Amino acid sequence: MLAVIGLLSCSNDPIDDTGLLITGRSQCYVTFFDLLGSDHRTVLVSGQTKIDTTALTVTAVARFGTNMQRVKPYCSVVTDAIVEPTMGIWTDFRQPQTYTVVSGNRQVRKTYTVTVTLQQ
Amino acid sequence: MRHYLFPLIPVVAALLTVGCQPSVSPDEGPLRNDLLKKTTGPAVVGDRIEFAYAIGTLEGDLKTVRAEATLPGGTGTGFDRFSWYTNRSTGVDEPLATAGDTATKGPVSTANILDVATNKAITLRYYYYPTAASQGKDVSFRFSVTSSTGKEVSIQSPTYRISRMDMKRSIVLADGAKAYISLADMTAYTKAEVEQNNLASKIDLVYIYRPTLGAGNYAFGHALVAPSNADYLKDVVLPTGLAKPRTAIDKRVDVKDAQLRGTAGFDVYIDDIDLERTTFTNVADYAYGMAADQGAFVKTADGAYAAYVYVNGVNNTAKTMTVSIKRLKLN
After folding, report:
1. Which residue of B253, B282, B283, B310 is the best one to mutate when testing the A interface, meaning the one whose CB has the most A CBs within 10 A?
2. Which of B54, B198, B223, B328 is most buried (most C-beta within 10 Å)?
3. Beta strands at B166-174 and B320-329: parallel, antiparallel or unpaired
4. Which range of residues forms the domain containing residue A73?
5. Domain spanning B27-161: which CATH class is it, in words?
């Protein structure tokens, strides 16, 4: 009995190339999006960010004066999902950017288009 | 055979006696000293390094102290006349005169101990002011103390690198007046001064204050703008002949440099390496909405200087902003 428990506890859960656990979850969506300026403070106008999990779009408004060439995106996704390519790096957001959310079981992929407009 | 060994007996006994005595290092003798470098920030011209030199004697009196730097310091270098103690009633540190005849000649500073009958163990302060001639060089210090019994002990400090940065504090910028900043000069000029002194090619930043800006009257506030930025300077009559360099400006809100701030309690320092390695990829040519304790990393368009401009304070009514600058020459 103990041997069986021991064997089960030592079983290797699958992990992906980045070392993250592959689970059984198939949910695949964005729950939150933010954009930071060079001072690591949000540049987005509060209440203007809209996430459409059907149309697979994120729209947001950056404050007047934001240098859209150097902003850092962040998002939250459903449990166990990941985002490709990695967010959290300085990015040129003068044009819409696309990010793919991949489910926890790595079987479902949904590509979101993120569009940030600048207050003029 | 036995008689040959007899003369060696006293020698062996003497060696055993000496060998069993505990060794006495200077730190364990009746006259002792120790050293603490109190300053945690970089050694920058315009600021000082502070040492606490602790001395004490169990025999005779403390007499004189001496500090020798490997590089001569600037004005103000030397021993302070006061030691400090904490008033147990108030919790406030209070000064007590413990040293007199403080003098500095070249790299050597000396002082005599006062009230030697009571000052058997004291901690003296020694200040060292780096000079422009010592920028980029290493400096170390040897502290020593002598007692009335003729004994002397000393202690050698580690080596410290003098920063290559230049620092200038409390430059008052005024919208429409002292608004043109030269990083080469670390000075703010008026439009007239720029024109009269042919400084147009040396201006890297323009200070403006606009409560709001844009079609939507968005909050803007105090701003540093590169001469290249026509959008934010369109209502500014720039000095004649002003070049339009695109100075890279990268705003920060969380770099409260203690030396630029001029107050203790913030152990954050811009050092040479920060200005050497800061990258300016895709950064803006402006920083707006600036407030006290915020700042911006900047790099001149010709790549000659990188600097951190720290905001000491802003005044919306007077339309002024006081800044302090650390600057490093890159090439």
Report:
1. B282
2. B223
3. antiparallel
4. 14-118
5. mainly beta
